[in-house]
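Format notes (please read before filing issues)

Several people have asked whether sequences and structure tokens are stored in separate files. They are not. Every record keeps both together, in the order shown below: the sequence lines, then the token lines. Line labels are part of the format and must not be stripped during preprocessing.
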Amino acid sequence: MDVLGQSRQEGVGRKETRRTSLVFLMSFSFVMVIFSLYGANASVFDKARSTLLDFAAPVLNVLSKPVKWVDGRIGDVQDYVNVMEQNKQLREENDELRIWMNEALSLRRQVSYYERVYEMQPLPGAQFTDARVIGETNGPYTRAMILNAGRAQGVKAGNAVVNAEGMLGHIIEAGQGASRLLLLTDFNSSTPVVVEGADVEAILAGRFNNRPQLRFLERRDGVVLQPGMRVVTSGAGGVLPRGLPIGEVSRVTEKMITVDLYANYQSTDLVRVVNFDFPKDVTSEEEQAPEAAEGGDTNG
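Then the structure lines:
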């Protein structure tokens, strides 16, 4: 009995071993079939995909051109917008630089003017008032300017006005903070002058152009005037100081002698008003002493 039971158990064990081996073989075979089928399908899919790509490549190439063109136009528009923004910024910077440049040029012109003006030798006893031309006026005068200096700055009627080149005219009206300058070219202007080199005095009279003429009060027999002779103020009448540069003789004819002025009033901006007080008593102390002694004797 024991031998029979043992034999049955061994038979059952062999059957189970065979069954396990069979299941393993079947599973392995199934896996291999799956792998073989996937590999075949993968090869078919790869071929199909390659064929599809070969077919779609020309179509995609044609369709991509409009897309690329649109992308290029969008890029061009963006570049244009960027360039416009940069141009706007550059224009703003240029405007700002232009303002600074004009201010620098104005300051340079003022500095140059003051350097040239202060190179002029000041008259003994003369006082100078710097002023700016703030406007031109016609009114009763054809050639006149308004200055931003008046009695508060020591400006008086009759004062000569000069710039870096020479005399412009004289003050005819002086307010508290402004004054009126009558130019040498005005028809109402008459200035006593002397022609250097000929030592002849005359009146410089304004005309309706930029070249005033010389009018002689006395006969000038034997006096030869030539173009280029210098004309300066004579100081006659005790109003203007002597020696202020005016211009040069430009044309000499039998009927008229004209003068080219040094000063160009059309480009005048900054000027100087010359306040010169003539000495009221020119009697020396030696001359005053005998007069005082004679007066004392008479009283005695």
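For reference, the curators noted about this record: The first strand starts at residue 126 and ends at 137. The mean pLDDT is 76.
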